[in-house]
Amino acid sequence: xxxxVYSETGPASVLRLEExxxxxxxxxxxxxxVVVSGVNPTDWxxxxxxxxxxxxxxxxxxxxxxxxxxxxxxxxxVTGFAVGDRVWTCMAAQDRPTGTAQEFTVLPAERVAPLPExxxxxxxxxxGVPAVTAHRALTVAEDxxxxxxxxxxxxxxxxxxxxxxxxGHAAIQLARWAGATVITTVSGPEKARLATAAGxxxxxxxxxxxxxxxxxxxxxxxxxxxxxxxxxPNLELDQAVxxxxxSIAGYANNGGDDVRVDIRANMVLNTRLQFIxxxxxxxxxxxxxxxxxxxxxxxxxxPVGEEHGLxxxxxxxxxxxxxxxxxxxDAVGKVLIDVASQGSGVSA
Length: 348
Prior knowledge:
- The protein is of the alpha/beta class.
- It has 2 domains: 2-126 and 310-338, Quinone Oxidoreductase, Chain A, domain 1 (Alpha-Beta Complex); 131-279, Medium-chain alcohol dehydrogenases, catalytic domain (Quinone Oxidoreductase, Chain A, domain 1, Alpha-Beta Complex), CATH 3.90.180.10.
- The chain has 10 helices and 15 strands.
């Protein structure tokens, strides 16, 4: 099979295309024939590591956590999946050498979820890190639901920071599916257009005027949940618009690694400041996210593409390095890698 591998940390040039044997699934594992692989910031950050030239945990590693494809084989003890099932993956490369930038990948059965009929492989490969992270951010509030479904967020106001990003896009869609009023902040008109296409009810340009006043005019009683991509530069704004017992869920360190918290102001509001990293969320939260996201898929709530606010940027498997560079360069939209060989009979 064709596989992208790297043997040490470094720039995208460390990625190389190799021929590798098709792996066999072990107990509790499934083998997926990958149709589309999704690229996230976590993928290039893992490839970069703490510096160039560092050794890896495995002799060779295949990148990319997310993807979508078809179950090709199941190992002993696997229930709930059968050969031929369409699936989306999550954390394929976490503590494993077998990511999705290859024609076949093996991963634990709990790291795949059903991809409903009629939902494209493009959508499936765009889930994983963004959708699971968004689900977690929307289910950590003290007064909020622990699961998402239609009506779960009725009457709630959700503020999504950076609504044109992949996590922001998923958060807008999941929050709206669950019944919330969704406000998002963006940096300009083009991203405002994308956030609106994703389903945001209100879009605020944080670079113009008084964004806190604008948000307060939309939600005079305050925001219930904040999905925050840049906690350091945005916390002051978040604190100015949340209601008592609101949650501010930060899932990235864009804009700085350190943040100053006004203790008294947050104490008065009983604010919950929640940090999110998918890899340490725990099995229960991951399973809940997979189930709820799959339910949203069945309802058609998570479309992708330009017309739905998440442009798709495509690369062939042989150009995985270029795909990584696009994400590392903050490309707007979702970067996908077409893995399935031409003539395979599989359409993305």
